[in-house]
Amino acid sequence: GEWLGTAIYTFTPDPAFAGGTEYTVTVSGDLKDVDGSPMTEGYSWTFRTVRPQILSIYPYGGEIVALDREIQVSFNQPMNRDSVRSAFTLRNAQTGVDVAGALRFESNDSVIVFKPSSLLSLETPYQITVTGVAKSASGEATLTNPRTENFSTYTQHSPKKTLPTNTNTYT
After folding, report:
1. CA–CA separation, 135 vs 144, rounded Å?
2. Integer CA distances (angstroms), 69 to 38, 91, 131, 140, 169, in order
3. What is the rounded distance in angstroms from the CA atom of residue 92 to the CA atom of residue 121?
């Protein structure tokens, strides 16, 4: 740790504190300030770090997307890879079949990106689910806000008019 002035002592953990974990801090009465004076007595307190939460899912609920769209889920902290793999599904909502693909982790394991193995089906509803079995990187805490989002893929459009028409002659 380090002193910031004469009254504030800072401590930066390495590695960082685990999400959703209770910690007890005890400062010995032997700790001395920058002038060399000891504290009058020791002091202890307990705190809990924030549990994991989903910050965003893309595509957003109700959005209509391209057939090659990757799915992205952002968390407020690094996550346990195995638990996130178990918690995540992309399902074809029409057939009830899970979509095959590869899940990769980014941003220090706080973002997942799912790339379907093949193009999504045209004009089809899909459901993204992240269940509560997803855990913080330490495995100490589960997700506080499991979510499901629904989106669809583009519809097929027929051309309304083509040029030149059979009756028009262009030179």
Report:
1. 9
2. 60, 14, 21, 32, 41
3. 9
According to DSSP, the β-strands at 64-65 and 147-153 are: parallel
**Of 9-13, 104-108, 139-143, which has the strongest mean pLDDT?**
104-108
Question: What is the token pair recorded at 87?
Answer: 């918690």
Euclidean distance between CA atoms 121 and 144, whole angstroms: 32
Choose among 123, 132, 130: nearest CA to 155: 123
Yes or no: say if 154 and 67 are a contact pair by the CB < 8 Å rule: yes
Q: Are 71 and 90 in contact (CB under 8 A)?
A: yes
Beta-carbon contacts of 125 under 8 Å, excluding residues fewer than 6 positions away, are: 92, 93, 94, 150, 151, 152
- The band of 3, judged by pLDDT with boundaries at 50, 70 and 90, is confident
* pLDDT tens digit sequence for 65-100: 999 999 999 999 999 999 999 999 999 999 999 999
Considering only CA atoms, which of 57, 127, 65 is closest in space to residue 90? 127
3-state helix, strand, coil in the chain (%, to 5): 5, 40, 55
SS3 22: strand
What is the number of alpha carbons within 13 Å of residue 88 lying toward its C-beta? 28
